[in-house]
Design brief:
The structure is a single chain. By secondary structure, the chain is α+β, with helices and mostly antiparallel strands. The protein has one domain: Alpha-Beta Complex (Cyclic Phosphodiesterase, Chain: A), CATH 3.90.1140.10. It is about 30% helix and about 35% strand. It has a five-stranded antiparallel sheet with strand order 2-6-5-4-7, covered by helices on one side. Strand 8 and strand 9 form a beta hairpin. Helix 2 crosses helix 3. The radius of gyration is 17 Å and the shape is globular. The protein starts with a strand and ends in a 6-residue tail after the last strand.
Length: about 190
């Protein structure tokens, strides 16, 4: 099974991002856009994982979740990785709550290293993926649209993260929650 850990987004954030995507589509760039129902913040990508390993990590992640206090984040401006001139991934960033999400990701990473998963090598940069560029068509117009798009900042409280299964059906990734991990309200 192809798995990842994620923070789900509120309907308000998803609707706002859907509107941002519609604005960016006017640049007519070659982008494979993310569907509204698939928007999330990835905390850690596990990749292809044997079913037997999943049973072993659920108790570890449950314990880890109880060690983290709920927190809030606020969505930010759209941007691009690696940069605006050569975009590969289009995203919405966070204007607040980045430190808390990075901390949660690190704690999850450390927990899963104990279960023989590979440690993340790259620094974690929390974001919401909007789409992936598939060619250089109309990139100047896309850059202009990214720079001129104003997205309202929306706050969301994070009280849980999820173990999600990703299954490719045709050309579409379909996500299914396998487990919910509630953050403790009484964390030390």
């Amino acid at each position: 099974m192809r798995l990842f850990l994620a923070v789900h987004l509120s309907d308000e954030i998803k609707t706002n991002i859907e509107q941002t995507i519609e604005t960016l589509k006017t640049a007519k760039a070659d982008v494979k856009w993310i569907r509204k129902e698939a928007l999330h913040i990835t905390l850690k990508f596990l990749g292809d994982t044997d079913k037997s390993r999943v049973k072993g990590i659920i108790p570890l992640l449950s314990y880890t979740a109880k060690e983290v206090k709920p927190f809030t984040f606020i969505t930010g401006k759209p941007g691009a990785f690696p940069d605006m001139d050569k975009p590969k991934v289009l995203y919405t960033g966070l204007s607040s709550g980045k430190t808390e999400i990075i901390s949660l990701s690190k704690i999850i990473d450390e927990t899963l290293v104990k279960a023989a998963f590979k440690r993340e090598e790259k620094p974690f940069n929390p974001h919401i993926t909007l789409g992936r560029c598939t060619s250089v068509l109309n990139l100047p117009k896309l850059k202009e649209a990214l720079l001129n798009t104003i997205s309202p900042e929306i706050e969301q409280k994070v009280e849980a993260f999820y173990l999600v299964k990703s299954e490719l059906i045709g050309n579409t990734a379909v996500y299914k929650d396998l487990e919910e991990f509630n953050l403790s309200k009484y964390s030390r």
